[in-house]
Amino acid sequence: MDLYVIGSNGGEPKVLAVTSEDELVPSFSRDGRSIYYSVEIEGTWSLMRMPIDGGKAKRIQGEGAFAGQESPDGCWVYFTRRGQEVGGVWRMPVAGGAAEMLVGELPSRFWGQWAVSATGLYYAIFPGSGTQSIRRLDLASRRISDVVTLNHLPSTFERGMSVTQDERQLVWSQLDYSGIDIYVVDGFRAP
């Protein structure tokens, strides 16, 4: 998989990154001048940042960093980690610096079930036993509160949650039904 960009009015796609690795889960920086994406380098996921007008991509976080997204104020990069039992949600300054884990209860297979607003981080939890829910971490006080109880598991292995910046609406994808069909072939004979 490679990265392309196209104007919102259509036109010819512009190639941003074509490498031997898969460039996954792209997102724009808040100023629209850069793109964050994830790439697996030597068996470990890394978060990259590339200027939209061309130029070399820069690895801004290794150690399994995945699915980066810039904060609304453009000061932080939020991400999760893949390849670990608990991915959690982390952040680091856009200008560079140490990463800090904000919440550790997000399993890595649900890496896309989180969203950030100006004042809160929303994420889904799936305890081994107990209630599944979406929680909110207040970014100033670090207080955690439950927002909604889930009756079904959110989708795995894809980005599936978003929050409006005024935090009046939250949207997520979930798996409502899964099934398997069994077929019988009459008169089957082995060759």
Model description:
The chain has a single domain, classed as TolB, C-terminal domain (Neuraminidase). The protein has no helices and 16 strands. It has strands spanning 3-5, 14-17, 24-28, 34-41, 44-51, 58-61, 65-70, 76-81, 89-93, 100-103, 114-116, 120-125, 133-138, 144-149, 161-163, 170-172. It has a 4-stranded antiparallel beta sheet, with no helix packed on it.
What are its keywords?
single chain; 191 residues; mainly beta; Neuraminidase; four-stranded antiparallel sheet
CATH superfamily: TolB, C-terminal domain
Could you spell the SSE succession in H and E letters?
EEEEEEEEEEEEEEEE
CATH topology name, in short, is Neuraminidase
Q: Give the count of structural domains.
A: 1
If strands are numbered along the chain, what order do they take across the biggest sheet? 3-4-5-6
**Global shape:** globular
Query: What class do helices, strands and sheet pairing give?
Result: mainly beta
Helical percentage:
under 10%
Number of strands: 16
Give start-end ranges of low-pLDDT stretches: none
Average pLDDT value?
85
What proportion of the residues form beta strands (DSSP E)?
A: 35-45%
